[in-house]
Amino acid sequence: MKGRERNTPCWCGSGKKYKKCHLNRDAQPKENPWAAVEANRKAFTQRKCSAEGLGLGACGGNLIKAHTVSRGCNLEKIAKNGHVMQYTANMSEMNKNGGKLTIDKIGIKNASIFYGFCSKHDRELFSCIENEPFTGRPDQCLAIAYRTMSRELYGKDASAHLRDTLRSADKGWPIIDQYFFQFALEQIEQGNEFARRETRHTQIKLGTLISEDNFDGLKSIVFEFSEIIPFMFAGAWSPFTDLYGVELQKGYTDEILEQVIVSSSATTTGTMVCVSWLTSVNAPGKAIAEQINNLPVGQQSSAIIQMMTKHIENIFFDPEWHRNLSNKHRMQLEILAASGLDFMGSVPSAPIRLDLDFGLPNPKRSFEV
Ligand SMILES: [Zn+2]
Ligand SMILES: [Zn+2]
What we know:
alpha+beta
């Protein structure tokens, strides 16, 4: 490498000169990238109201700690001594063991929180789900879907800085490994940007529907249980395949993928599970909701717990129920939770096993909203 090349922009795309970036990087002392990832997550946890600029009126008051699975009416019902269980991927452990997943206790005060709304919007937008019993009304399904998508977006915004954080994590590595690492970072960034764009797209649409009191733009199938089910969740994903692994969306880069948005809510006597989608022709969320609904009633709960564990990180289990699972059932949940959980953001592919009975109550009915 002669003088001229040393002053050209580095091949890794950092925007720095080669001599200030990857020159002699293999000889530099190694860093601990995982500490940097954690620091990044904290630093970029945005503190901005997700309802700003969506035609939902001006913000007011401080940003508040919001629960996506509401604490009072939901998590308390499945908690033991104030705790629930959540699958977590420990980044540094994952690096060592090639995909280490643990299930950890989490206090319900800290479960599923995000600082995504000002106190005024939080009060106005979610009073219908926080202060009124959940009955699966259209305005309630819409409010919950909107809050869920806002949290998804919040997470993707935080991940947007990952590439910059990890750029120098290949210090002390052989040159060939540096190439692969930087290439992987580029892929991760691109993947996150696509996901962020889709999530934002849906989040804006939902906000607009609320501001227009338009309850036709979101459709749901609600499954009603007469008991509390031992897991609570709120999340969304862009389905590529349906319940049986058949393709729903291709995922071309110029395509805005549609999401399926799911949540559970405690009612006065039991639980309701909403599976929602933005109204469109051949909505993939609709296909999935209908497939669950068309299963024999005895298999619906099993399909729901497995799909949610597979696709959603924001899912919490009753500690006692989880502890009493047989090995076979615990193993299947672990496989599903770990599926797609890698640095490259792969699509989860572990199959749902409808033959497994998790001993859950059956829905007493389902209805369309
Ligand atoms: Zn470089
Ligand atoms: Zn606000």
